[in-house]
Amino acid sequence: MYSDDFALVDGDKGRLTRRVHAWREALENGGLKLNVAKTEYMACNSTDLTSLRIGDDTAERTDNFRYLGSVLDASGDIDRDIKARISAAWPK
User: Fold this and answer.
1) 11 and 50 both lie in a single domain
2) Alpha-carbon gap, residue 34 to 23, rounded angstroms
3) pTM (predicted TM-score)
4) What are the backbone dihedrals phi and psi of residue 10, each rounded to the nearest 5 degrees, phi first?
5) What are phi and psi of 33, to 5 degrees?
6) Which positions ≥6 away from 60 have C-beta within 8 Å?
7) Are residues 15 and 46 in the same domain?
8) Do the Cβ atoms of 18 and 25 come closer than 8 Å?
9) Are 68 and 49 in contact (CB under 8 A)?
10) Among 4, 74, 68, residue whose Cα is nearest residue 39
11) What single DSSP character describes residue 33?
12) What is d(CA 75, CA 54) in angstroms, rounded to the nearest whole number?
């Protein structure tokens, strides 16, 4: 089994890294597996966090991603979210 659509938010790089490792351990203790290859992270207003190591793997950094139907952007801009919602509404 895999977990899906989780978000961890933290302003401190060290604390975030500890939380990610604790989160991964908790998932594995519950019988779930974190697929690091599909894991992305986004750092808003920060250049400090250039990579996020999870065990032996590295999670990819992204400037935007879809979470629970919304498109989140590192800059805080909502244009991509609006365009995605309009594109999804047209076929309906």
Assistant:
1) yes
2) 9
3) 0.59
4) -160, 145
5) -125, 130
6) 39, 40, 41
7) yes
8) no
9) no
10) 4
11) B
12) 25
| pLDDT tens-place string over residues 29-59 | 988 888 888 888 887 766 666 678 888 888 8
Task: Look up residue 89 and give its two tokens.
Answer: 């509404």
Q: Domain check: are 79 and 41 in the same one?
A: no
Cα of first residue to Cα of last residue in the chain, in angstroms, is: 32
**Residue 57, SS3?**
strand
My answer on whether 54 and 74 are in the same domain is: no
Say how far apart CA 61 and CA 44 lie, in whole Å: 11
Domain span at residue 15? 1-61
Q: State how far the Cα of 72 lies from the Cα of 54, in Å rounded to an integer.
A: 22
Total number of domains in the chain: 2
Instruction: Tell whether 17 and 31 lie within a shared domain.
Output: yes
The letter for the amino acid at 32 is L
53 in the same domain as 27: yes
